[in-house]
Design brief:
The complex is a heterodimer of chains A (257) and B (311). By secondary structure, chain A is mainly alpha-helical. Chain A has one domain. Chain A has a two-stranded antiparallel ribbon. In chain A, strand 1 and strand 2 form a beta hairpin. Helix content of chain B is 35%, strand content 29%. In chain B, helix 3 packs across helix 4, helix 4 packs across helix 5 and helix 7 packs across helix 10. The chains are: A mainly alpha (257), B alpha/beta (311).
């Protein structure tokens, strides 16, 4: 394929993926916005004032970056895993597999869909958060780049889940039993400095902690982790998961007999 | 003449140990209308799966217009259009979206993709259904949608895996006409079908595959010439005795006005009619008992099964 043909193939996948989640926005965009708004009401307005300040910030201000990041993580993951597995289930993934579209463009195309949905949801949650607090962005580059890189990373995670999944049960197991606990324990609602030493050390093994804190640094200028450490962890995972995805697609794992 | 498809020593053993292909050799020339026939589980769909790169082969080589699938897969793919046996499009998309996307995967620019989608949706009689959900199409329309999708990047080799399964006779005939037309325009076509009348009517060359091996590969004409005996059913203008016999002819009475007769290749139908006339029996109509290719196919597959059983 020439460069133009590759561009056209990628554009096709991206349009298809963005159209898919946009068409069913009531299922893909709205629910996380409503859920996060409820978090703002309950933890921010009702319980927050009784908790007091966290690292010098009002509690609602402290949890806003984490809640935005939580919506980015779940949306990017859910978009790619459901789209890819559904393409496998209905077998229309074969439309791409018989074509000359290179595997890396298939991966990038699906990532674009996941990132697109994550940005829409993340943007909408950010707008909603303005109703509850006077949000100021400390470092716009870091806020945006950490959000984008996290969306890429969890889109890759969703893709891998979709490649391995053999049933619809398989696409809900990881989000329910791995992703949600790691996110809740990733410092969304608290600072790990509040934890006893042992649990603090255990928390440092949770990769989501680095994303939430990197994003919090971008928004508030406050983090439990060195900001560069967040970039290193996220980019490191992206490189590994991208390579694994390509390897599995090349082998035809779960999609070729 | 250019070779559209060359298969050499193709083998496939599935993970569960089933040996689906046992060393297939096949050559299809450009412009041919080629039939790949075989009973269920013979290896037809596995062969097509390997050609379309959806099934990983165990051994052997496949070349499409000289491009080796092992070393030049990306270069080989644009030559090929595939119409699979099972429906494999998104049921939530419209026929137009499906075709535009498929064209895009082959690198076609969006505007050209839209033009091609219109061209092939019109050609296959689906233009009126272009913006409805694909899941709402009838079975015949879904089959035509898959043909349109396979053609949207204008491949030089079109492979159809039982394209007319479950399609009514009128639509089947119109699909035949369309396939003949694109074949006449230069597209090489490989067809698998369970309707042997279809293969006899459309294909110039035929290979029969059974138990993962090619048991016959020749022209349709040469294949049919191997048929030594044909059975005809004769409708008579008056009743005949149930015990009627005709010396020199294998004749069986089906009912009082219908008989069937086996005619060998060396015999003349005139002899039969003369003998019947001599007995005052008049024939008012005559037809083949079954499709000629079907008889031959059953004979070949049965023969190979027997050989296999003996081995």
């Amino acid at each position: 394929m020439t460069l133009t043909e590759k561009y056209n193939a990628l554009k096709t996948i991206v349009i298809k993926e963005v159209t898919r989640f946009s068409r069913i926005w009531v299922q893909t965009i709205l629910p996380p916005v409503i859920t996060t708004a409820l978090y703002f009401v309950i933890f921010g307005n009702l319980i927050g004032p009784r908790i007091g300040e966290m690292d010098g910030y009002r509690y609602i201000e402290y949890i806003i970056p984490g809640l935005i990041m939580m919506s980015v993580i779940t949306s990017s993951y859910a978009n790619v895993v459901s789209s890819f597995y559904s393409a496998k289930f209905q077998r229309h993934i074969e439309e791409i597999l018989v074509s000359p579209t290179p595997n890396y463009l298939i991966v990038i195309g699906y990532l674009a869909g996941g990132v697109g949905r994550a940005m829409c949801v993340g943007g909408a949650v950010t707008v909603v958060s303005l109703l509850f607090s006077d949000l100021r962005i400390h470092n716009i580059f870091m806020t945006f780049s950490i959000g984008l890189l996290t969306a890429i990373l969890f889109s890759l995670g969703g893709l891998l889940n979709g490649i391995f999944a053999k049933s619809f049960d398989d696409i809900s197991i990881v989000p329910t039993f791995v992703l949600t606990p790691l996110t809740y324990l990733g410092g969304v609602f608290y600072s790990i400095n509040m934890l006893p030493e042992f649990w603090r050390s255990v928390s440092l093994g949770n990769p989501i902690l680095y994303m939430v804190n990197g994003f919090r640094y971008g928004v508030l200028g406050n983090s439990d982790i060195a900001p560069l450490g967040s970039y290193a962890i996220i980019i490191g995972f992206i490189v590994v998961l991208f390579a694994v995805s390509l390897h599995l697609l090349r082998r035809g794992h779960g999609i070729r007999n | 003449m250019t070779t559209a498809l060359a298969i050499k020593g193709l083998t496939k053993t599935y993970g569960n140990g089933v040996q689906a292909l046992r060393g297939i050799d096949l050559v299809v020339d450009e412009g041919d209308f080629f039939g790949l026939l075989g009973p269920n589980g013979a290896g037809k769909s596995t062969t097509i799966g390997i050609i379309s790169s959806l099934v990983n082969k165990t051994g052997g080589r496949v070349e499409i217009f000289g491009q080796d699938l092992d070393t030049q897969l990306a270069a080989a793919k644009p030559y090929l259009g595939i119409v699979p046996q099972e429906f494999n499009f998104s049921i939530f998309e419209t026929p137009r979206q499906i075709l535009i996307n498929q064209a895009g995967y082959y690198g076609l620019e969006r505007r050209l993709a839209r033009q091609r989608a219109e061209k092939y949706l019109r050609a296959l009689g689906l233009w009126d259904k272009r913006d409805g959900a694909a899941r709402e199409l009838s079975g015949g329309m879904k089959r035509r949608l898959m043909i349109a999708r396979a053609l949207v990047h204008e491949p030089r080799l079109l492979i159809l895996d039982e394209p007319t399964a479950g399609v009514d006779i009128e639509i089947r005939r119109s699909m035949w006409d369309y396939l003949r037309r694109i074949n006449a325009q230069g597209t090489t076509i490989i067809l698998t079908t369970h309707y042997l009348e279809e293969a006899e009517s459309l294909c110039r060359n035929i290979a029969i595959i059974d138990h993962g091996a090619i048991v016959e590969n020749t022209s349709t004409k040469a294949l049919l010439s191997q048929l030594h005996i044909e059975t005809f059913v004769l409708d008579l203008n008056g009743p005949v005795a149930a015990e009627l016999t005709l010396p020199g002819h294998a004749l069986r009475v089906l009912d009082d006005t219908t008989v069937e007769v086996d005619i060998s290749k060396e015999s003349s139908l005139n002899d039969l009619f003369n003998d019947l006339s001599a007995r005052g029996i008049e024939v008012i109509s005559m037809r083949n008992k079954s499709n000629r290719l079907e008889e031959l196919f059953l004979h070949m597959v049965g023969r190979e099964s027997e050989n296999g059983a003996q081995a």
